[in-house]
Specification:
295 residues, alpha/beta, 15% strand
């Protein structure tokens, strides 16, 4: 029996919670709750990793059943060495147990057998992380996407390809040429989705990272990639609004997956509110905003 393709998995997850929204797991050590922050600062990497795990497990409990997906940022775990990798592995297992899709934000980009090794590491069901989707960089060439495709076809995994980011230096590369290089990448994504990777929802396994502050460009990219899910970072602390994040959605409200991280994880708690309660409240408000704007 063929696996459910990732585009359909994400659509179903968004339907369950009422809107497509993800929360990033970016455990900045200096922004952890005070007791955990002190433990991380006073100890070695193993102690810091334990503090990160405690915080992120609280976040997962708060987010389960509220958002469609979580997006662990691998750099915050990798910086802690082997203990950090072990925590990320356990968090991915815990997210699966809680019914959350996992978009692992590792931004890998390489060729041939190296890319296949990344796929086994991050996407293989028997690998250490078994994420549902992975962020990847295409800027070594579109052929670097192809080693991941067997995992998309055979295991229902997905990719989010860096297409239009909004960091200060991005436009010089991504908007260079005619057509712009970002549109060349978009064409490559569309072609791969047409090649058996688009499910019943009309959305495919290969998506695009399109920052919220590229909202003016999002409708044109949607026209070029009608089957692509857009992973939209930059909501909240980075200045992007929910309206901007949804600029590339389809008419049915699907197709754009806004991501907020710091504004949900580290927003101001109300008096008497636990860490988990605060995360849950802020995530629920994010979903409600997406639901109202996505109609």
């Amino acid at each position: 029996m063929a696996p459910t393709l990732f585009g359909d998995l994400l659509t179903a997850a968004a339907d369950r919670v009422g809107a497509p929204v993800a929360v990033g797991l970016d455990p900045h050590l200096d922004r952890l709750p005070p007791a955990l922050r002190a433990a991380a600062a006073a100890g070695d990497r193993a102690q810091a990793a334990a503090a990160v795990e405690t915080f992120c497990m609280q976040a997962l409990d708060a987010l389960a059943g509220t958002v469609a997906a979580v997006k662990p940022q691998s750099a915050f775990f990798e910086q802690l060495g082997a203990p950090g990798f072990a925590v990320m592995e356990r968090l991915c297992a815990a997210a699966r147990d809680r019914g959350l899709l996992i978009v692992l934000d590792a931004k890998r980009g390489d060729i041939a057998s190296t890319a296949a090794a990344y796929a086994r590491t991050f996407l293989d069901p028997d690998g250490p992380f078994a994420a549902d989707a992975l962020t990847v960089s295409p800027w070594l060439g579109l052929d670097t996407l192809d080693p991941y495709l067997p995992w998309c076809r055979d295991h229902g995994r997905g990719l989010f390809v860096l297409v239009r980011t909004t960091n200060p230096g991005s436009a010089r590369l991504q908007l260079h040429g005619s057509p712009a290089t970002a549109h060349t990448v978009a064409a490559g994504i569309a072609a791969r989705n047409r090649d058996g990777l688009t499910g019943d929802s009309g959305l495919g396994s290969i998506g695009a990272v399109v920052g919220a502050q590229a909202a003016a460009e999002a409708p044109g990219l949607r026209a070029q990639m009608p089957a692509g899910w857009f992973l939209v970072p930059g909501v909240g602390s980075q200045g992007g609004s929910m309206a901007e994040a949804l600029a590339g959605r389809r008419a049915d409200g699907m197709g754009a997956l806004p991501v907020a991280s710091r504004s949900v994880l580290f927003g101001e708690d109300r008096p008497g509110e636990t860490v988990a309660d605060g995360i849950h409240r802020r995530a629920r408000a994010l979903v409600q905003a997406a639901r109202e704007l996505g109609r």
